Amino acid sequence: MTNFLVLYDACVLYPVPLRDLLMNLAITDLYRAKWTNEIHDEWINGILSNRSDLDRKFLERTRDKMDMSVRDCLVVGYQYLIPTLILPDADDRHVLAAAIHSSSSVIVTYNLKDFPKDIISQYGIEAQHPDEFLINLIDLSAELVCLAVNRHCASLKNPPKTLEEYFSTLKKQSLSNFIGKLGEFTKLL
């Protein structure tokens, strides 16, 4: 198992297509994915605030499946660090605290401005946009990334998607550079 630890911010767990891709990547053991129950609460509440037609219990089952699919994913015992941290948005301190406590090297987030480099680098942590993170993963192992992409695309049943439709969905998640980089590995897709 790798020692490369990565913490997912709530904003990359909702949208669903990105969360599902990140989960498929997490089970490759290319890195060790981490999150907290507080991060779970954030993405679940985010979905429910936009989708009142969804049932909380359904989303909680998704949370439970995530926790069961990725070994040692939940970070606990980090709360003591929260009051000691200063970030532009105090509501994000729990994310940095969990990253520090779990010895994560990367926080995957769309909200880069909320995790200034000069602050988080003091803890040996880097914030990466999901597009940058996914490109870096391709550089680590294009084969494992393509395997996860193939598995994720094949799992889509309602409706099924062609690879082109799947890429279109990922582009809507601001992953254009990742899609472009995947194009270099069409023989693996």
Structure overview:
This protein is α/β, with parallel strands linked by helices. Helix 6 (130-140) crosses helix 7 and helix 6 (130-140) packs parallel to helix 9 (176-182). The chain contains 9 helices and 4 strands, in the order βαβαααβαβαααα. It has 2 domains: 5-134, Rossmann fold (3-Layer(aba) Sandwich), CATH 3.40.50.1010; 141-188.
Strand content: 5-15%
Number of helices: 9
Q: pLDDT below 50 for ≥5 consecutive residues: which ranges? A: none
Question: So what's the oligomer here?
Answer: single chain
Order of helices and strands: EHEHHHEHEHHHH
Which sheet architecture does the biggest sheet show?
4 strands, parallel
- Averaged pLDDT, please? 96
Give me the secondary-structure category.
alpha/beta
How many runs of DSSP E, i.e. beta strands?
4
Indicate the radius of gyration in whole angstroms: 16 Å
The CATH architecture designation of the largest domain is 3-Layer(aba) Sandwich
The number of domains: 2
N-to-C CA distance: 25 Å
Determine the fraction of residues in helical runs and give it as a percent range: 40-55%
Rough shape? globular
CATH topology of the largest domain, what is it called?
A: Rossmann fold
Annotated CATH homologous superfamily of the largest domain: 5'-nuclease
Which key features would you list for this structure?
189 residues; alpha/beta; Rossmann fold; 4-stranded parallel beta sheet; 7% strand; globular
Summarize the structure.
This protein is α/β, with parallel strands linked by helices.
